[in-house]
Each structure stands twice: as C-alpha cells, then as structure tokens.
C-alpha cells in the first residue's frame, strides 16, 4: 500500500478520477519495468491524468507534499529514464491519456498534438491530411510524442529531416511548481530571446513535463525506391553514402548500416524474413530514396549510383525492391535487429555517435579492443550512417553464462565509451542518458557542461522532484 498521506491520495484521486489513479501493486506492474525488463522500480502510485490542467494540478499537489514525479510515455526507452527508483516513494505520471490531436494546419505545415499520442497515430493523422510526419522508429506503434521529445528521438529519417529537435516548433510544458508554460507557437521565426523549448527537448522530464507540441509537417512522399546492398566494409558504406548524397541530394532519406552478425540474429529469430542474397557478406546497407513528385526517376538515380559503386568495388551485390511488400521485407531485416538480439541472452546496448568520416576506424578499433579484453563476444553493430549514429551492441559469447556476462557490462561499456570519446564522439546519440548512462556522463562529459546543466536543473527544479536520479 502507498506510503503517501491519505489526504494527498484523496486529493490526487479528486483530480484524475478513479480511472486515473492506480494504487494496486498488480495493476502498477507494467509501469514499473521497461519493455526489456532491464530496469525495475517501485512506486507509491501511478497517476494517469487526462488533460494538461490535471497534470498541472497533480504537479502542484506533489510539489507541496515534496513527492517526486517520474513522467512516463510509452515506456519504450532503453536507458531506464521512465522507471522509478526502488524505494517506492515516487509517483509515476503516465501521459498516455493525453492523446488528442488538437489541430492540423495544412497551410502552415504543422500539427499540434498532446504528449500521449502514439507516434504511429501522429504519422497517420499527417497522412490523412496529405502530409508527412517523418520521424520513424522501430517502436513507433507504442512510443509516444512526449517520450520522443523528452529523449530527442532520431530514427531512420534523420538524414533528411533531422531529429525531434529539428521537427519541433513549440511546446506546452507543466513546470515543476505546477504552472503551465504555453509555448505552443507554430512559428518558424521567433527571435525574442532564449529558445526555451530547446531546454525541455532531450531533458528526459527533469525540468518539467511536456504535455503538447507543435510539430512540422512535410509534403507527402509520392515516389519511393529501396535497395539492399552488400558491402565489403564500413569504409565502403561511408564512400557510398557520399556518392549517393552527391547524386541524389535530399532524395536520400535512409541509409542504414548493418553487420552480418546483426542480420544473422534476425534471420534466426524473426519469423517470415529471408536473406536477400544467396551468399553471406560482411556488411550491408539499406538505401531509401523518396520524392514528393509521382513517378520521379528514383530507380534511375539508384541504378546509376550503384553502377558506379560496383565499378569501384564499393558494392558487392544489390537488390532493389520491386513492390511495397518487398520494401517492407527489407525494412523488417533492419527493424528486427534489436528484438532479435534479445533472444541471444543479455543484450548490452550502446547508442553512440562519431563523425561520419570516423565510423570505419571506430568500428575497427572498438571491435579489436573488445575481442582482446572479452574474447568471443558477439558484436551487433548497425545504425544511421548519415548522422554518425551507431547502435554498437554486444551479446555474450556462445555458451557463456548470463550472469558472468552481465558482470562484465560496466567494463565492456567503458571500452566502448573510451574509444567513442577518443574519436570525438558522444556516448548517447538518441536514447538519452536515463539512469543507464548517468554516471558515465559524469566521467566523459566536460565538467563545465555538467556544471551548466546542474545550474539549469536548479533554476527550474530547485526541490529536485522532477524525475530525480535521471540524466544528472
């Protein structure tokens, strides 16, 4: 039973109603662990407000009582940012009932949505208006806009459209004292001082609670072509993306790199998929070109680019999707990697970024360092070459015990992060810090940066009640 004062529980119940308050331990279960079951905590209550005004009222009551809040969206994160600690005194604030699409302004190319809207529903609403919302993630059927904003999500289309920071024009935020900041401005130019919304994007709920956003829309895609290309090395991928960018410009909307180990896990564990080639190759890229014009000559561009790549030995083999079914089949190979790796035992996931030009050397250096220190580990490297973001994951050696492998997780992480920083990279590209990388950030980030971040945290949340223990 909750350790909160009965009077506070009653006041919270009056705000959110019976449907918005969960106190039963069994019913709280799904809110207290992430989807991989890698992080688990306890909570005094789970609250599910249905409006911004209810969120504000909850925040005021909890601030007055000194109760910490843990904002939560679709709970699809990989760093434990939406999971409470194990003391059972925090309140989980689920935003999933804030699920209205408030406005679609086709002339202004914007859509205003609440934080609990599922990303896939947002994509569908844009399509219904003849527009495109380009953010695309493997978890788009369950992740929410609020979570996407809180972690500054990236995904597979960053190459063309940017991450959530670039896709956002305005925010509505409940501040730690319960006041509502209405920054829902659908403006592309507003030079009236600090751009406050940027503080909340990527803040993982530590400065306030995002309740709604004005997001950019784009012209609908009317032509699309997709290819699966075999490569000899990551260096070939960097060469190929430079070539395709020069040839296709902004029509290049996807360029995803995958190692053979990544593909083997998918082929073994994901039903209904098959290897596009008869022979195995060391590396692959999934290339997507798109255009707003119907019948754009994308296949001609793709064939020209691949033809040049074959001549130079950059590409080893290629297949171009001939139908929408084949497009989905190729993307299934890419999007199935993370889930497939989980079937191989503990999966140590590392979301790093380095300059695009340094990706080949980073992979070679890190592979070598890991195999020397932890012989037999299986490295699952894949990611978004166009923005330098690699998901550099590690699975246990064949036959190794789960517990022994997990005991090496910190040492493995240190090897990867050491090389990342040596290559002028970041230890978190799009997943955030959460609780998984909070302590590592203290070691790898510039002390002055951390000092400035703490100053911002104190200014917004002096009592430290907004998602404590995360990010900082």
UniProtKB/TrEMBL annotation:
Residues 39-220 form the FAD-binding PCMH-type domain. The keyword Flavoprotein applies. Its cofactor is FAD. GO terms for molecular function: catalytic activity; FAD binding. It comes from the Bacteria. One of its GO terms (biological process) is respiratory electron transport chain. InterPro entries: FAD-bd_oxidored_4_C, FAD-bd_PCMH, FAD-bd_PCMH-like_sf, FAD-bd_PCMH_sub1, FAD-bd_PCMH_sub2, FAD-linked_Oxase-like_C, FAD-oxidored/transferase_4, Oxid_FAD_bind_N. Keywords: FAD, Flavoprotein. The keyword DNA-binding does not apply. Belongs to the FAD-binding oxidoreductase/transferase type 4 family. This is FAD/FMN-containing dehydrogenase. It comes from Pseudomonas borbori.
């Amino acid at each position: 039973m909750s350790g909160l004062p009965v009077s506070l529980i009653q006041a919270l119940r009056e705000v959110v109603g019976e449907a918005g308050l969960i106190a039963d331990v069994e019913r709280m279960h799904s809110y207290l662990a992430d989807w991989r079951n890698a992080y688990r905590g306890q909570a005094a209550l789970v609250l599910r407000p249905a409006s911004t005004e209810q969120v504000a009222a909850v925040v005021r009551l909890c601030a007055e009582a000194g109760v910490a809040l843990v904002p939560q969206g679709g709970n699809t994160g990989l760093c434990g940012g939406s999971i409470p600690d194990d003391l059972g005194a925090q309140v989980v604030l689920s935003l999933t009932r804030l699920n209205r699409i408030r406005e679609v302004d086709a002339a202004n190319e914007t859509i205003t949505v609440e934080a609990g809207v599922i990303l896939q529903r947002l994509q569908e609403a844009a399509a219904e208006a003849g527009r495109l919302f380009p953010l695309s993630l493997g978890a788009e059927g369950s992740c929410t806009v609020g979570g996407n904003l809180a972690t500054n999500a990236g995904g597979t289309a960053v190459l063309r459209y940017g991450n959530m920071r670039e896709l956002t024009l305005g925010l509505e935020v409940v501040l730690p004292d319960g006041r509502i900041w209405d920054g829902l401005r659908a403006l592309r130019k507003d030079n009236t001082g600090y751009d406050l919304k940027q503080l909340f994007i990527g803040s993982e709920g530590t400065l306030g609670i995002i309740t709604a956003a004005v997001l950019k829309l784009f012209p609908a895609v009317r032509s699309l072509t997709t290819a699966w290309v075999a490569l000899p090395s990551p260096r070939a991928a960097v060469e190929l993306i430079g070539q395709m960018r020069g040839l296709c410009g902004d029509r290049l909307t996807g360029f995803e790199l995958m190692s053979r180990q990544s593909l083997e896990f998918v082929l073994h564990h994901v039903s209904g998929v098959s290897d596009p080639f008869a022979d195995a190759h060391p590396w692959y890229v999934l290339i997507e070109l798109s255009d707003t014009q119907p019948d754009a000559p994308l296949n001609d561009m793709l064939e020209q680019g691949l033809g040049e790549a074959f001549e130079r030995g950059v590409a080893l083999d290629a297949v171009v999707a001939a139908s929408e079914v084949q497009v989905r089949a190729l993307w299934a190979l890419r999007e199935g990697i993370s889930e497939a790796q989980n079937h191989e035992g503990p999966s140590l996931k590392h979301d790093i970024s380095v300059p695009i030009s340094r990706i080949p050397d980073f992979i070679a250096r890190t592979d070598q360092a890991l195999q020397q220190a932890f012989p037999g580990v299986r490295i699952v490297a894949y990611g978004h070459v166009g923005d330098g973001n690699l998901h550099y994951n590690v699975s246990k050696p064949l036959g190794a015990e789960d517990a022994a492998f997990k005991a090496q997780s910190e040492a493995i992480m240190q090897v990867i992060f050491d090389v990342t920083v040596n290559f002028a990279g970041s230890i978190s590209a799009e997943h955030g810090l959460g609780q998984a990388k909070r302590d590592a950030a203290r070691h790898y980030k510039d002390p002055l940066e951390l000092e400035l971040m703490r100053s911002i945290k104190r200014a917004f949340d002096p009592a430290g009640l907004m998602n404590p223990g995360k990010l900082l």
